[in-house]
Specification:
The protein has 325 residues and is an alpha/beta fold. The chain contains 13 helices and nine strands. Strands 1, 2, 3, 4, 5, 6, 7, 8 and 9 form a nine-stranded mixed β-sheet that branches. Strand 2, helix 2 and strand 3 form a beta-alpha-beta unit. Helix 6 crosses helix 8, helix 10 runs antiparallel to helix 11 and helix 12 runs antiparallel to helix 13.
Length: 325
């Protein structure tokens, strides 16, 4: 049985296209479960109108209070009855063979509990932006080979790769993943599921654009524009605290993630070593002394140990910056 878990919030504008793409799948789904986070537009009316002619069951749950995306997806996934659940955003569009492709993958790989894909990015008017999510996050051939070699967790320690809107997951795995944590910044539902499953080597990917992923200003979560690089002049003129704040925040995020994963009995401890070293590296960077001369020795120590690879593939840039800025 196949379920679709859709979370909505003021999504009436784009919902018809998404719902139509689910209805037009070459391999039909069995049910659509919608959890609405107290929309104030016509979202519920759009879904109810669609349900009247849908060939599968459509059930809508309106939350008593606003839960936010992570807890709303937790609720929605728990309400699904399917053996395989497809996570679904309200504003994308599925390729007609998405369900067939991902189910075929899971049938071929019974050792995997989830599979995700790439996605073509589109704008408000559903026009392709000419790039994919994987291109945006640089999940290239090298990273894909590393993932297939059993090192997916090391990739995810450094940043997000799995987009929930492309994810299909076995319901049997959810008991190991819930409740979803909410106290670690940026560790939303899809990031958490991907991280835990990667540590078990139970999540794979399909290198195809199985959805059109909409980027727009009103979306609750998703890929925003790339962060602007700090100019050379600004690096020397900005207050030191402005440089240290994001480093400290990164250390706190890694530390929070490490503590959560350390408490999961089924996670191999040896796979958490690099995460432990990474959070220590960022804390060390955030506590370097004001005096530039005194920074040289600790920075060089972390360079020699290879820890600056946690900061960037171009490790020498943050290392030099830590000394001179």
């Amino acid at each position: 049985m196949v379920s679709v878990a859709m979370c909505t919030y003021n999504g009436a504008k784009y919902l018809p296209q998404q719902l139509e793409s689910i209805a037009n799948q070459t391999l039909p789904v069995n049910e659509l479960i919608v959890c609405d986070d107290r929309s104030t537009d016509d979202t519920i009316e759009v879904i109810k109108t669609f349900a009247q002619n849908a060939s599968f069951s459509v059930t809508v749950h309106v939350n008593e209070v606003n839960l936010g995306s992570t807890k709303n997806f937790e609720k929605c996934l728990n309400l699904c009855s399917g053996d395989v659940i497809f996570l679904c955003d309200q504003d994308d569009a599925w390729r007609e063979d998405k369900v067939a492709k991902q189910l075929a993958y899971l049938n071929k790989h019974p050792e995997k509990d989830a599979v995700f894909s790439d996605a073509m990015m589109i704008d408000d008017d559903s026009k392709a932006l000419g790039r994919t999510i994987w291109e945006e996050i640089e999940f290239n051939d090298i990273m894909q080979r590393k993932w297939m070699d059993g090192k997916a967790h090391e990739i995810l320690f450094n940043g997000f790769v799995v987009t929930g809107a492309t994810l299909a997951i076995r319901k049997s795995s959810l008991s190991r993943l819930m409740p979803f944590p909410t106290h670690v910044a940026d560790l939303i539902h899809d990031a958490w599921m991907a991280m835990v499953l990667s540590l078990e080597d139970k999540i794979g990917f399909i290198a195809e654009n199985l959805i059109s992923y909409r980027r727009h200003e009103s979306q609750q979560v998703g890929f925003g524009s790339k962060i602007e690089h700090v100019g050379l002049t600004d690096r020397f003129n900005r207050p030191r605290e402005e440089k240290l704040l994001p480093i400290r925040e990164k250390a706190d995020r890694l530390n929070g993630m490490y503590k959560l994963l350390r408490d999961l009995s089924f996670v191999p401890r040896e796979k958490l070593i690099k995460l432990y070293l990474a959070q220590n590296h960022f804390y060390r960077r955030a506590s370097l002394p004001e005096n530039r001369i005194l920074r040289i020795s600790p920075v060089l120590q972390h360079v020699v140990k290879g820890y600056y690879n946690f900061s960037s593939k171009d490790w020498w840039l943050p290392a030099i910056g830590d000394i001179v800025e």
